[in-house]
Amino acid sequence: MAVGAPANGGSCVARHDGRVVFVRYALPGETVRVRVTADRGSYWHAEAVEVIEPSEHRRSSLCPIAGVDGAGCCDLAFVEPDAARALKAEVVSNQLARLGDYQWHGIVEPLTPVGPTGWRTRVRLDIGADGRPGFHRYRSDELVTDLNCGQLPAGMTDGLSGTEWPAGAHLHVVIDDDGQRHVVRTVRQGRRTSAEVVEGNFHGVQRAGRYSWQVPVTAFWQAHCDAARTYSELVKEWAQPELGMTAWDLYGGVGVFAAVLGDAVGESGEVMSIDSSRAASRAARVTLAELAQVSVITDSVRRALTAQRRSADVAVLDPPRTGAGREVIDLLAAAGVPRVVHIGCEAASFARDIGLYRQHGYAVEKISVFDSFPLTHHTESVALLTR
Questions:
Q1: Separation of alpha carbons 11 and 259, rounded Å
Q2: Is residue 25 helix, strand or coil?
Q3: How many C-beta atoms lie closer than 10 Å to residue 338's C-beta?
Q4: pLDDT value at residue 114
Q5: pLDDT (tens digit, 9 = 90+) per residue, 95-153?
Q6: Which residues are designated catalytic?
Q7: For residue 239, which of 247, 227, 230 has the smallest C-alpha distance?
Q8: Is 374 in contact with 151 (CB distance < 8 Å)?
Q9: N or C: lower Cβ tally within 10 Å for the chain?
Q10: Closest Cα partner for 284 from 216, 186, 184, 193?
């Protein structure tokens, strides 16, 4: 089977007897033998089990546990890093054209200073019926119990395989900005989740700019060790916050962007940071207590914006993988927010959101795309929109 262009989600497009086939672990231009993994009627999902004519960009995998019949963690570990970024740029460009009606032909920028391996700061391992921790196979309940994933820094999972854990539990592992490892075990019991510290503390130290957070091991923080610094610097540059301005930090998490905005608008300004996570909101309130101009609201972004009677000079959004969506973007447009910095970690939802902004008269001033998840097909995209 001859393989064509990359598709969103880590596959490449091929055709067989008129049917579209999405092939994982293959590269454009290759000839491969595949195993069909799912029949969706008009199209198939498949994975390359034999490479007959390899691409010049194929290399030995940088993740020893990923690939066909392996873990689903690093689906592009077999691609030269520069070539992988080129594939990701092509996917983002295609999604923006198809779903956002916007033409973008840029590059995917690597994050520094680390390379394509050892970049991850936090990971969650699931525990199988045999009491062993592992990573899931692609779209499967089966676990790969070899923990030597290429994304993880040396020593991150040392000693965790030698213990028998409760079946169905989860292990949350963090290497914080002090280099300390923290391991927390969680178990779901009915509607409640119990948490126990196995090693270190329940909170890890994370830093961005002049601020230091105590972030729960089970809470969200950027996975890449250089992401929080990179994004906060870009937000400060693109948002252009000034003294006395009003800024909204939507899906604000622990307040990384609220900190940057709060410093810039000063005591005469106002920053409203909104997130539905109680744990993240608590961390934001503690770290940003000195910034009286920052208010932290624990609520859904949609409900909080619906209740607002004032507008903002700038809004920063970092929504979950599903994107902000029509309701939230409609509310931003109705409020007349003139400047928006929008961050997206999934190409299709990011593109759909860009299309929604453009329907409301927003112009795309800039887009930067980062290789924030090396060895995988994922990217992080940031857009500056003005109205």
A1: 38
A2: coil
A3: 14
A4: 80
A5: 999 999 999 999 999 997 789 999 999 999 999 999 999 999 999 999 999 999 999 99
A6: 345
A7: 247
A8: yes
A9: C
A10: 216
* Cβ atoms of residues 221 and 206 within 8 Å: yes
Segment 88-94 shows an average pLDDT of 98
Domain spanning 95-113+222-386 has what CATH number?
A: 3.40.50.150
Q: With beta carbons less than 8 A apart as the criterion, state whether 214 and 203 touch.
A: yes
Phi (first) and psi of residue 227, to 5 degrees: -70, -45
Query: Span 69-79, mean pLDDT?
Result: 97
- Reply yes or no: is the peptide bond before residue 113 cis, omega within 30 of 0: yes
Please, how many CA atoms are within 13 Å of residue 83, restricted to the half-sphere of its CB? 15
SS (H, E, C) 223-266: CECCHHHHHHHHHHHHHCCCCCCEEEEECCCCCHHHHHHHHHHC
Provide the 10 A C-beta neighbour count for residue 378.
19
Residue showing tokens 């779209």: 139
Query: How many helices and strands, by DSSP H and E, does the chain display?
Result: 7, 21
Domain 1-58 fold is: OB fold (Dihydrolipoamide Acetyltransferase, E2P) (2.40.50)
Closest CA to 278 of 220, 318, 328, 323: 220
Parallel/antiparallel/unpaired status of strands 181-189 and 170-175: antiparallel
Say how far apart CA 357 and CA 330 lie, in whole Å.
Answer: 8
Burial of 210 (0-12, 13-18, 19+ CB in 10 A): exposed
- pLDDT, tens only, 330-357: 999 999 999 999 999 999 999 999 999 9
Residue with tokens 């230091």: 212
Determine the pLDDT at residue 191: 84
Q: Which two tokens stand for residue 331?
A: 């509310």
Q: Is the Cα torsion angle 347, 277, 235, 114 positive or negative in sign?
A: negative
Bridge-based pairing of strands 339-344 and 380-386 is antiparallel
48 bridge partner residues: 34
289 to 219, 255, 285, 318: CA distances (angstroms): 19, 11, 6, 22
Rounded to whole angstroms, the Cα distance separating 112 from 278 reads 31
